[in-house]
Amino acid sequence: MRTLVTLAIGLALLAAMALVPVLGPRILVQDLFKVLCLLVLALNWNLLAGFAGLVSVGQQAFVGVGAYVMFATTILWGLDPLAGVLIGGVVAMALSVPVAFFAFRLNGAYFAIGTWAVADIARLSFGQWRALGGGTGTALPRDATREMLGVGRVRDLLGVSPAAAIDAVTYWLALALAAVMLLACWLFLRSRMGLGLQAVRDNPVAAQSVGVDPTRLKALVFLLTAFATGLCGALLFIQTGRITPDAAFSVIDWTAFVIFIVVIGGIGTLPGPIVGVLVFYALQQLLADYGTVYLIALGLIGIAIMLFARRGLWGGLIHRIGYDPLPLGHAAPRPPHPTLEERP
């Protein structure tokens, strides 16, 4: 019953957010698009670090690869940008295979540094791609986004400019991606594989002793999060319309801010990234005009959370009230009823 109530509230919020491009101003659509993309990135990083124990600081590699592949398929092959989004996600997942082969040989801080090094190598490599502008980057052709699938229909239906129609289409895609990601995370973590993943995070030796394969589970999560991160990166740069290596592989924008969001919301909790991204958006709106003060405030809040509320805002709230609307725990199986022969 608790899960059904949560699902009903979630569907109501999803429907309300879907109406934003119809009822709200364009600036709100653009802001919420970025918030939704950050939420997708935070859900993926939380699945890696919070549930699989893989603290990566190189997820910007998959953001950049997804974005660059989308640009390549659009500019060089003439495909629809939305087709490039899907191809970008697939290529990012394919890239994660050799990365996992290398990074899984490392542990702890070495794993984090290794993923960061891979991301920086990717940034330097894509900066040599002269067909896409090299180190200075390039822009999407204007007609490519205007003729993107769904843009013409939205423009006619809502009676808006082509730019506003592009914003609406990318916003709805980001909203759908965030909703699917949230549901997929919940279903996966509630499954036997999700239980095994959390057991591996807590005690890999004990998990392996009862038949759980830690490497297989971690590799699966690493590949799936790379795919979703690549999709999100490609979608982000459709809306931006221009790409450079530094922007696509930015460790601050696509990893540092994401880690901040997960930490303040509650690492290892499913609603934690949602709470974190709302706090991040509120702080961004309140402090963005103060320049470096904005970044200092984010840092101080992150330090305070790590020192005094290690469970994060959501984790601390759940600990206090003892109620979780999206429970991930598994009840222990009940012992079978004794037979007549076994009863005293």
Description:
By secondary structure, the protein is mainly alpha-helical. 73% of the residues lie in helices and 1% in strands. Strands 1-2 form a two-stranded antiparallel sheet. The longest helix has 29 residues, at 162-190. The radius of gyration is 22 Å and the shape is globular. It starts with a helix and ends in a 23-residue tail after the last helix. The relative contact order is 0.15. The mean pLDDT is 88.
Give me some keywords for this one:
2 strands, 344 residues, globular, mainly alpha, single chain
Quick gist of this model?
With 344 residues, the protein is mainly alpha-helical. Helices cover 73% and strands 1% of the residues.
- The CA-CA distance between the termini, in Å, is 38 Å
Q: Report the biggest beta sheet as strand number plus sense, adding barrel if it closes.
A: 2 strands, antiparallel
Taken as a percent bin, the fraction of beta residues is: under 5%
Q: Looking across the biggest beta sheet, what order are the strands in?
A: 1-2
Separate helix tally: 17
The radius of gyration over CA amounts to: 22 Å
Average of the residue pLDDT scores: 88
Give unreliable regions as ranges: none
* Total strand segments: 2
Helix content: over 70%
Q: What structural class results from the helix and strand content? A: mainly alpha
What letter string, H or E per element, gives the SSE order?
HHHHHHEHHHHHHEHHHHH
Quaternary structure type: single chain
Shape: globular
